[in-house]
């Protein structure tokens, strides 16, 4: 059974980097350019992804707003939320976790760091 | 004003460490820091990418390098051949470097700091940054290229204009 | 103090054999930077002398320290999650049940390196058993890594390695570009230098010993000596935990191998009780 991830970031460079790392881990990867785009994709999808890797600062709907929207929607209750961001203030991390992020990764990160965070979340493709 | 006074800004070694971490995460090859950076070196023929930091503290974080170095950054970051790299990808890659280094600097500055989108100029000789002064500069050798990272702070001008 | 090519080649061969790491010429500066603290800690001012010293057959721990210094970029927190999960679900309840409430749980992190294992255990215990006192001793042969462990200060990169975000916000404070362990957590941990291949002194009786991925660097007679000495520091119903690919079999037959959920652990003797009489 394939694990599905969606990478949500307004930077095409960061989407490319994360896509590569997560694909190598054996996941199927989809992309969105901001929170609004991601919600649209979730609504239209046949299958809810297993995990979303979410940037914080994005136009239209930022990562925190996306997390709040997802956590208040029972359709997406099994979507695991991993925030991936440059925001490193303690208070920001607390806000993200309180809003419903399951885990948090601070940029810059190595591929190993991503793999380990996904393991903490119990998500491995078994590759 | 209190926020600006308590902003913790990176020293040169700390900025070098931030750069080092970004390099170790996404790129290949070792960085060798230049002990006494030459801050007068001209930017002609170089690309510059920067992010601006606002909120409690106002300034820019810039990265300057040659076109060849920028292409190397893009090929490493996106794992492409040099022949496949477009100008847009070079700008994206350098902009992302500025974003990540700037993001780490912003993290030190404080909770109210906000980071702008990265901007990239393909010929830095034409760029002028009025009413800023250079706080910290790190220069490093990487793959026979010279990279420069600088932190600039807003200086209050007499007219107070941009 | 540039390193000679014979010494560089020796080190390159060593790390290639032990850790499959390739060090090409041009990386001398890396070897110098990483080995200088070790050389100083060993009382040498000359890295070359330190490396030549490490080549003597008896100086295994020195060779191990060299390999560690050149391969450790960042060590993970909660490395091998199944071990920590097993400790949490199976070992900890047994310890709590069998030890008087006033008695601190005593744990040894016997290859402490930069401290992540010891601090991970402390975080786990603080979260799972907040009312219990505990004492963790972290030992390592290398003074350099112990200094970092004692300082409890980690870079952003190190913080990204396997540390659950809830622990980051609870037990760490950002300082500059780095993160600092909460002094409160540090109070229950002590770090000290210890050479596993030499007699142990001044260690308390331990309830659990973590001896992970370090025995592999020793020959069989030394492994046997180490395990015998470790068993002597353990409570009779104490537990030993090795690296996931390691075993006491063929080395020390007195240890009783047990599997508890996903965790392989060794009891100091066959008489140690195994059953949990009640679950919390």
Kindly provide the radius of gyration of chain C, computed on alpha-carbon positions and rounded to a whole number of angstroms.
19 Å
Report the sheet with the most strands of chain C, covering strand number, pairing sense and barrel closure. Answer: 7 strands, mixed
Unreliable stretches covering 5 or more consecutive residues of chain C = none
Number of domains of chain C: 2
Order of helices and strands of chain C: HHHHHEHEHEHHEEHEEHEEE
CATH level-four homologous superfamily name of chain A: Response regulator
CATH domain class name of the largest domain in chain C: Alpha Beta
Describe the protein's architecture and organization.
- The complex is a heterotrimer of chains A (127), B (162) and C (280).
- Chain A is α/β, with parallel strands linked by helices and 127 residues long.
- Chain A contains five helices and five strands.
- Chain A is globular.
- Chain B is an alpha+beta fold and 162 residues long.
- Chain B contains four helices and seven strands, in the order ααβββααββββ.
- In chain B, strands 1, 2, 3, 4, 5, 6 and 7 form a seven-stranded antiparallel beta sheet that branches.
- Chain B starts with a helix and ends in an 8-residue tail after the last strand.
- Chain C is α/β, with parallel strands linked by helices.
- Chain C has eleven helices and ten strands.
- Chain C has a seven-stranded mixed beta sheet. In chain C, strands 3-5-4 form a three-stranded antiparallel beta sheet.
- In chain C, strand 9 and strand 10 form a beta hairpin.
- The radius of gyration of chain C is 19 Å and the shape is globular.
- Chains in contact: A-B, A-C, B-C.
- The interface between A and B is medium-sized, with 19 and 22 residues.
Brief characterization of the structure:
The complex is a heterotrimer of chains A (127), B (162) and C (280). With 127 residues, chain A is α/β, with parallel strands linked by helices.
Fill in the keyword field for this structure:
heterotrimer, A: 127 residues, alpha/beta, Rossmann fold, five-stranded parallel beta sheet, 5 helices, B: 162 residues, alpha+beta, 4 helices, 7 strands, 34% helix
